[in-house]
Specification:
Blueprint lengths: L5 H12 L3 H9 L9 H12 L5 H11 L5 H17 L2 H9 L14 H28 L13 H4 L2 H19 L11 H31 L5 H30 L15 H14 L5
Helix pairs in contact: 1-2, 2-3, 2-4, 3-5, 4-5, 5-7, 5-10, 6-7, 7-9, 9-10, 9-11, 10-11, 11-12
Length: 290
């Protein structure tokens, strides 16, 4: 279905009558058109999150309401719009989402109108789980892994051991939820899912940078840690190695669908000898003979 439907026009008109321009923009961003939400509507909503007189809970509520629609197109676009605001909007929008007990309850979502509806419903269920995990991670950490400062002076590189050992599994869970989107290049066949994939790709680049920073910090501190911390740290490092394969697969799909190679990070594999030396150190602390 192309073009705005009568339902879209009625929904937008209702909010025009009540004077809620924000709600009207949400409706315009989440029409039945099988295209990505329009840039002008997303930019309007991003700007709205910066305004002190804008009711952020009301904005979130109308997005949740749109995510309760029966059409996969409207639901997917509501999730994309929410994700866009989580990344580019004022942080108070993400803070509000993280403060809610439940965000998206779409684990059973199914649009039965044609085979396309069935296929896209699978990705909606996975995508909503990732956005829930993103909000949960913010609640756990009080910052967003995607937005936080990276590099030598960044949050994950300078984090104290105790917080790092608690924070890394939270980051790993968010990365897992993103990788569980599990799409193949041939399934990226409409403007809606393509917009979603691009947002996930951009998130993964930043999450991977955080993950890398956390691992560097962990390795720098490993030989000064207590035995129990070394045990946890070794598990975190092993999980990091297994996830690198999946991250690499995701980036290969990004390349297949035409994302510029220069925008895709180069993943370097750590030498096996490093894992061996960590295991040897832990065995020594536990009194095991080599």
């Amino acid at each position: 279905m192309s073009g705005q439907t009568l339902t879209d026009r009625i929904a937008a008109a209702q909010y025009t009558l009540t004077g809620s321009e924000v709600c009207r923009a949400v409706c315009k961003a989440t029409t039945h058109e099988q295209t990505a939400p329009k840039k002008k509507h997303l930019e309007y909503l991003i700007q709205a999150t910066q305004e002190t007189n804008v009711n952020v809970p009301q904005m979130a509520d109308i997005l949740m309401e749109r995510a309760g629609n029966a059409s996969w197109v409207v639901v997917f676009k509501a999730l994309i719009t929410t994700h866009h605001l989580m990344v580019h909007g004022n942080e108070r929008f993400l803070q509000f989402l993280a403060s809610r007990n439940t965000l998206f309850n779409l684990s059973n979502f199914l649009d039965k109108t044609g085979s396309h509806g069935y296929d896209m419903s699978t990705f909606i269920r996975r995508y909503s789980r990732y956005l829930n995990e993103k909000a949960f991670a913010y609640r756990q950490m009080s910052f967003d892994f995607v937005r936080v400062k990276k590099g030598a002076e960044g949050a994950m590189r300078t984090m104290a051991v105790e917080k790092l050992l608690k924070g890394m599994p939270t980051l790993q869970s968010q990365i897992d939820a993103l990788l569980d989107f599990d799409v193949h290049a041939q399934e990226l066949n409409n403007g809606v899912i393509n917009a979603c994939f691009l947002l996930l790709f951009k998130d993964l680049i930043k999450l991977y940078a955080c993950y890398n920073d956390g691992i560097i910090n962990l390795l720098e501190k490993f030989f000064q840690m207590k035995r129990s911390q070394c045990k946890d740290g070794l598990e975190i490092y092993k999980r990091f190695l297994t996830r690198m394969t999946r991250v690499s697969e995701f980036f290969k799909i990004a390349e297949q669908v035409g994302i510029d190679k220069n925008d895709i990070p180069e993943l370097t594999q750590a030498p096996e000898s490093l894992l061996e030396s960590l295991e040897t150190h832990l065995n020594t602390l536990e009194g095991k003979k080599p």
